[in-house]
Automatic annotation (TrEMBL):
UniProt keywords, alphabetically: Membrane, Transmembrane, Transmembrane helix
Domain DUF5658 stretches: 21-105
Listed InterPro entries: DUF5658
Transmembrane parts of this sequence: 17-37, 57-78, 85-106
Signal peptide range: none
Protein name: DUF5658 family protein
Source organism of the structure: Natronosalvus rutilus
């Protein structure tokens, strides 16, 4: 008996869209954090603050990319229909941080 597997295109599109959102959120968070630090603001996340103090923005980039790699590894343990939650959970706080960064940069500018 030959088995065929169908792939839900909506599932694939949602997964790609969510990982695209992660990429946008990552770049925007790094950019607005760097701009905010240059404007005299301080990093409020203690882990990120220690990384930036020790390794600069390059350290923050490595930390964020490490987080993405961990998320990619974690998603493999989930059933396909639940995998989009991983990038959503990653992008959401970064997008909130971007909004806060933009607001605070506007306040000090």
């Amino acid at each position: 008996m030959i088995q065929t597997h169908t792939v839900d295109l909506l599932e694939i599109d949602l997964d790609r869209a969510m990982w695209g959102l992660v990429a946008i959120a990552l770049v925007a968070d790094i950019a607005t954090t760097a701009h905010g630090l240059e404007a005299g603001l301080t990093e409020s996340n203690p882990i990120a603050s220690d990384v930036i103090d020790g390794y600069g923005m390059a350290g923050m980039v490595v930390m964020k990319l490490g987080t993405v790699c961990l998320a990619l590894a974690c998603r493999t343990v989930l059933e396909k229909q639940y995998r989009a939650i991983v990038p959503a959970a990653l992008a959401a706080p970064w997008l909130v941080a971007v909004c806060l960064n933009v607001y605070l940069i506007g306040v000090v500018a």
